[in-house]
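Chapter review: from sequence to fold.
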Amino acid sequence: MKDSSHLKTSVVEADFAPVHFEPKDRHDRFALRLVKFMRIFADRFFANRYGHRAVVLETVAAVPGMVGGLLQHLKAIRHIRDDQGWIRELIDEAENERMHLMTFIHIAQPSRAERWLIMIAQAIFYNLYFFLYLFAPKTAHRVVGYLEEEAVVSYTHYLNDIDAGNTPNVPAPQLAIDYWNLPKDATLRDVVIVIRQDEAEHRDTNHDFASKIADGDHV
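The token string follows.
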């Protein structure tokens, strides 16, 4: 269970100045362009339907941690070496993203067509990301870092939309209250804030992993 009892809304929101990792080489630039290209489809299909956008976003976001954890596990066994904590970190990330998805399934109630889109997006992204991580793990982590940058931006827009009254600030689903240890009267706004915090942590972790691979600190 995720413990967010230490989070205060005012503190969390104050910490969200824009954060962007500047590309350092052609691999980083490729990762950034790929993520920007993927965003075009999200903007076109969902526009300001943030709950539905979150469902598809989290479907994709739940893939990298599981793929990375699996391949790091196999590499650690193959080379008979310690994984430096990467496997647990990546698997925890995948589980956390899955809980984001389960939360927004309750909130957005996706249609049958959108559920098909979820299946297609997951199938395509899983295969692409698996081979990217297999042959270029540094670039794979950089892609996730940039994906999480975009996620933070999207959830900030979502939060602004709630504050503007354009999206009803409905009660938080019970599974979100239980997972993040939120107050019993928590609302959608509280959920978006803690999920945005999660995404910021995943952003920093994956950019850090990519940089460690580039520096030879993890092979």
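Two observations follow directly from the output. The chain is about 75% helix and 0% strand. Residues 50-79 form the longest helix (30 residues).
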